[in-house]
Specification:
This protein has about 425 residues and is α/β, with parallel strands linked by helices. It has 2 domains: about 5-75 and about 370-410, Urease, subunit C, domain 1 (Roll); about 80-365, Metal-dependent hydrolases (TIM Barrel), CATH 3.20.20. About 35% of the residues lie in helices and about 20% in strands. It has 16 helices and 15 strands. The protein has helices at about 50-55, 90-100, 105-110, 115-120, 125-140, 155-170, 195-215, 230-245, 260-265, 280-285, 295-300, 310-315, 335-345, 350-355, 360-365, 390-395; strands at about 5-15, 30-40, 45-50, 70-75, 75-80, 145-150, 175-185, 220-225, 245-250, 270-275, 290-295, 320, 380-385, 400-405, 410. The protein has an 8-stranded parallel sheet with strand order 5-6-7-8-9-10-11-12. A 7-stranded mixed sheet has the order 3-2-1-4-13-14-15, covered by helices on one side. Helix 6 (about 155-170) packs parallel to helix 7 and helix 13 packs across helix 14 (about 350-355). The two termini are about 30 Å apart.
Length: about 425
């Protein structure tokens, strides 16, 4: 027997349907409807429209919302770049950073990613799973229903597989949709005695076959930066991984330019960070299938400039916004706060900011999400307000009252 639920009435419903994937978006382009309902049948959006008309047409539908408040409904938000599987802490990194040390100086002194590698290798599967679930729950309470999760703090055969297996197990225990990404190419670990190219060959030869055999990830990533991997060895790795069937994304231009242009050239589905993206890189995103992903949490965590989001949009790029939630450079993990601050700094319209965490973020990880569309899985986030613009006006302080994922209604206290 089918389960039919009518959600609403919503003072405003934003389905996010029909918006362009590239270039600027004005607030006037947003599809905002009033006094709306969303009919969900067996976890799938069956219909949207006038609430009273839907209630009359489907008298058997459950109506779990009381209808006595101003409510705004939007698609569940998408965080398309996180590192929420980790062990240990990087509080020492933070103390050194605010005392004046740079990210690269801290890494050279033994902190940074290597510190998280030690903590993650030492952590048990139970500890890693509990950490993922706790962070995923925080995201759900902020309206985020889809979360990309990277490995990359293992950097050995056993530890990378442990991370990916924990992400898979956590995905079975949370209502959120966790999208795994293999980031064995985060940095060359200190205990690997060969060259950077030899380490990348080791990943392809030893680790990737197990990842594919166990179905642990269809996406992979590489960090292109001083202290990580160079442009040419990264290009070779990406092309080899694509030939093996992986969708590739890349960390580029965080401290030095040049990586974004290469990411577009090799067909990366996204290029993430981009704080030092130069004019050539910005122009490369124009009408490209590669999504430019801004990570304002890293800019805030490191005290550095933001991704040139306005310029990327004005050059007809596709811009997404994600948290980069990790224990070192971006420990905040609050997508709405970060997107609001980026929007204020880069002069993004509310429509552009909202698309950056819904439709365009979904595009960055090549999934069907970010809209409320008939025939697709129901993922909604609901706020108690009479104006959706308040979500960004309050810069993350306005929290959702409910999150809906298929047949699951989560009420946030």
């Amino acid at each position: 027997m089918s389960s039919i639920t009518l959600y609403g009435p919503f003072t405003q419903l934003l389905t996010m349907e029909g918006l362009p994937l590239h270039g600027p978006i004005s607030d006037a382009q947003l599809p905002v409807s009033e006094h709306q309902g969303v009919l969900v049948e067996d976890g799938i959006v069956a219909e949207t429209g006038d609430f009273e008309s839907l209630a009359k047409s489907y008298p058997e539908a459950k109506q779990p919302l009381d209808g006595n408040e101003n409510l705004v409904a939007l698609p569940g938000f998408v965080d398309c770049h996180t590192h929420i599987c980790w062990g240990g802490t990087r509080v020492n990194d933070y103390a050194m950073r605010v005392a004046g040390k740079s990210y690269l100086e801290i890494a050279a002194a033994g902190g940074g990613i290597s510190d998280s590698v030690n903590g993650t290798r030492e952590a048990s599967e139970v500890e890693l799973i509990e950490g993922i679930l706790e962070r995923a729950d925080q995201h759900l309470r902020r309206g985020i229903t889809t979360i990309e999760v990277k490995s990359g703090y293992g950097l050995s055969l056993d530890a990378e597989l442990k991370m990916l297996r924990c992400i898979k197990k956590a995905n079975e225990q949370t209502p959120a949709n966790l999208i795994p990404t293999f980031l064995g190419a985060h940095i060359k670990p200190k205990d690997f005695k060969g060259s950077h190219r030899e380490y990348l060959d080791f990943l392809i030869r030893e680790v990737v076959p197990v990842v594919q055999q166990e179905g642990l990830a269809k996406r992979a990533d590489i960090f292109v930066e001083e202290g990580a991997f160079g442009l040419e060895e990264s290009r070779e790795y990406v092309l080899k991984m694509r030939a093996l069937g992986f969708e590739m994304t890349m960390h580029v231009d965080q401290f030095h330019p040049g990586g974004s242009k290469m990411a577009v050239e090799v067909g990366s589905v996204s290029a993430d960070h981009l704080e030092f993206c130069d004019e050539e890189g910005i122009n490369a995103f124009s009408n490209s299938e590669t999504v430019a992903v801004a990570l304002p949490g890293a800019s805030l965590g490191l005290g550095m400039k933001f991704t040139p989001a306005r310029q990327i949009l004005d050059q007809n790029g596709c811009l997404a916004i994600a948290t980069d939630w990790n224990p070192g450079s971006a420990p905040m993990g609050d997508l709405i706060t970060q997107a609001s601050i980026l929007g204020a700094s880069e002069k993004l319209s509310i429509a552009e900011t909202l698309a950056g965490i819904t439709t365009r973020a979904a595009r960055a990880i090549r999934i069907e999400a970010g809209t409320i569309t008939k025939g697709k899985k129901a993922t909604l986030t609901i706020f108690e307000t009479d104006d959706f613009r308040n979500i960004f006006y309050h810069q993350g302080q306005l929290r959702p009252t409910h999150t809906i994922i298929e047949d699951v209604l989560i009420k946030h206290e």
